[in-house]
């Protein structure tokens, strides 16, 4: 059985590490919050003090951090894992990033004899914890051969989209286009209902059983009804991700009017002070409404 490391034990990475443990692995884990890694290891696994420790101990390192900058730090920063990983080991990159950056990273790691899998993820924290999430992957046959069993332990759907990096990140960015637009549209619909005096719980019940429903409406508007903006995915995540969507389209001069509008909505929510709240907090940009759990317009 291959040894596996997990860097980043947030909402998604923590669940993925538990899925690996459930499949019989004892993952080497690292998180900036050392106490989180130590708490995980109490039930099986090994807490590491640095990414370099994870790399030295693992045949496969799975990175679940926020963005390309954090991935760079994990790999090449002080105590990064790229310098300690063995030739022939695999780095699995699960962040949402610029596809061109992912392509370049594959080439950079290849110079060190490290295999690479472009493997963004989707499905939310609950599916990550149950091993039912989706992975959008691209990489060499050698990389797949080295880590396929681990991917299947973490995800119900592992899509193989190409034999080199880039395709996984492109598909993830397109997914994020839809996710961001759907959240923005869901917030707009709920805000209109509140403005018109419709009971929000009744509106939620009707929409979730009607043709206008979406997974994002059903999931995120439940947060609004509960007045719970604890960030599972924060407003600033969609500032970043929709920015990547627009960057990719801009490079080929492709128009994305809905994505542009949704991005501006998340930007407005971020600058209004809701950057670290749940992305459903984009509803707070609409004036003249009283949100559930609030007595303020």
- Secondary structure tally, helices: 12
Class from helix and strand fractions: alpha/beta
Distance between the termini: 57 Å
Name the overall outline: globular
* Mean pLDDT value: 96
At CATH's second level, what is the architecture of the largest domain? 3-Layer(aba) Sandwich
CATH superfamily of the largest domain: NAD(P)-binding Rossmann-like Domain
Helix percent reads: 40-55%
Walk me through this protein's architecture.
With 297 residues, this protein is of the alpha/beta class. The chain folds into 2 domains: 162 residues, NAD(P)-binding Rossmann-like Domain (Rossmann fold), CATH 3.40.50.720; 116 residues, Orthogonal Bundle (N-(1-d-carboxylethyl)-l-norvaline Dehydrogenase, domain 2), CATH 1.10.1040.10. Strands 1, 2, 3, 4, 5, 6, 7, 8 and 9 form a 9-stranded mixed beta sheet that branches. β1, α1 and β2 form a beta-alpha-beta unit. The longest helix has 29 residues. The model has no long low-confidence stretch (mean pLDDT 96).
Short structural description:
The protein is of the alpha/beta class. It has twelve helices and nine strands.
How do the strands and helices of this protein lay out in sequence?
Blueprint: E1 4-7, H1 13-22, E2 28-30, H2 34-41, E3 46-47, H3 51-57, E4 60-63, H4 68-76, E5 90-93, H5 99-110, E6 115-118, E7 121-122, H6 125-130, E8 133-139, H7 141-154, E9 155-160, H8 167-195, H9 200-207, H10 215-225, H11 235-251, H12 257-274
Helix pairs in contact: 8-10, 8-11, 8-12, 9-10, 11-12
């Amino acid at each position: 059985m291959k040894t596996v490391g997990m860097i980043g034990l947030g909402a998604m990475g923590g669940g993925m590490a538990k899925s690996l443990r459930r499949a019989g692995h004892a993952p080497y884990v690292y998180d900036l919050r050392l106490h989180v890694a130590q708490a995980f290891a109490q039930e099986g696994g090994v807490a590491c003090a640095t990414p370099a420790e994870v790399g030295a101990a693992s045949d496969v390192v799975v990175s679940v951090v926020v963005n390309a900058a954090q991935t760079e730090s994990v790999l090449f920063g002080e105590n990064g894992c790229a310098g300690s990983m063995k030739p022939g080991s695999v780095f699995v990159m699960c962040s949402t990033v610029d596809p061109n950056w992912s392509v370049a990273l594959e080439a950079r790691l290849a110079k060190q004899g490290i295999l690479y899998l472009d493997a963004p993820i989707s499905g939310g924290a609950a599916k990550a914890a149950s091993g039912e999430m989706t992975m959008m992957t691209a990489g060499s046959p050698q990389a797949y051969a080295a880590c396929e069993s681990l991917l299947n332990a973490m995800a119900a759907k592992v899509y193989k989209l190409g034999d080199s990096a880039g395709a996984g990140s492109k598909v993830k960015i397109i997914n994020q286009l839809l996710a961001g637009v759907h959240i923005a549209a869901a917030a707009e619909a709920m805000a209109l209902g509140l403005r018109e005096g419709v009971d929000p719980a009744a509106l939620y019940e009707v929409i979730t059983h009607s043709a206008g429903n979406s997974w994002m409406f059903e999931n995120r508007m439940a947060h609004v009804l509960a007045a719970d903006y604890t960030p599972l995915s924060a407003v600033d995540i969609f500032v970043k991700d929709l920015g990547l969507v627009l960057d990719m389209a801009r490079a080929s001069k492709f128009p994305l009017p809905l994505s542009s509008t949704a991005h501006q909505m998340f930007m407005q929510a971020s600058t209004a002070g809701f950057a670290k709240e749940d992305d459903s907090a984009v509803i707070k940009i609409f004036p003249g409404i009283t949100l559930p759990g609030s007595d303020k317009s």
